[in-house]
Amino acid sequence: SQELEQSPQSLIVQEGKNLTINCTSSKTLYGLYWYKQKYGEGLIFLMMLQKGGEEKSHEKITAKLDEKKQQSSLHITASQPSHAGIYLCGADATYGNKLVFGAGTILRVKS
Amino acid sequence: NAGVMQNPRHLVRRRGQEARLRCSPMKGHSHVYWYRQLPEEGLKFMVYLQKENIIDESGMPKERFSAEFPKEGPSILRIQQVVRGDSAAYFCASSQGQGLGEQYFGPGTRLTVT
Fold first, then answer.
1. Nearest 5°: CA angle at A19, between A78 and A37?
2. Predicted confidence (pLDDT) per residue in A40-97, tens digit
3. Does B102 contact A92 at a Cβ distance shorter than 8 Å?
4. Which of B42, B45, B107 sits opposite A42 (nearest CB)?
5. How close A68 comes to chain B (CA, Å)?
6. Residue of A20, A38, B14, B92 with fewest CB within 10 Å of its CB?
7. Contact (CB, 8 A) for A106 and A86
8. Could you give phi then psi for residue B85, rounded to 5 degrees?
């Protein structure tokens, strides 16, 4: 079955620093999704990647999918307190829209 | 354009009672997914529905759980005879069409079974 591994499990960074979160799949992906979740709240859609080598950016967040479509990274530039939360990667490995999620990365940003 | 709506946001039930969770997809979306987030566990797929059809229910517990998405009205996730282990956050997501597509999540319903 599809498994997604996220690293690190948690991260504390100083405001203004850059950071990277990784997501590795055991299988080739049809689609890779990144979401952000605030504790006790719903998931906010960030980006979806489909093609090998694809890269997307939104404000200070950039996500990449490797050529083999098994690994993705989420990079935040000049982190701010508003970036704090839980980042989840989700994968569609069956082309059926059923997403499998990683365990999440907890990000804290110190002012 | 309103996002995915879920209600209630919080639901408390005693053991043995029924829980009904509602989800209204985003405007223009005809595909609904339910996920469950248990305490200290990740987000797990439960069921995928289109209007009047269950497409994939491979993540649904075999007993006590059912889901529907009628022609009119919201999608309903129903849990009969709730037990303490059903306490979790239940999220609904919707997408526009079949195949790869952006899934947008609702705020979730937090079910507590006492």
1. 95
2. 789 999 999 988 999 999 899 999 999 888 999 999 999 999 999 999 999 987 776 7
3. no
4. B107
5. 18
6. B14
7. yes
8. -65, -10
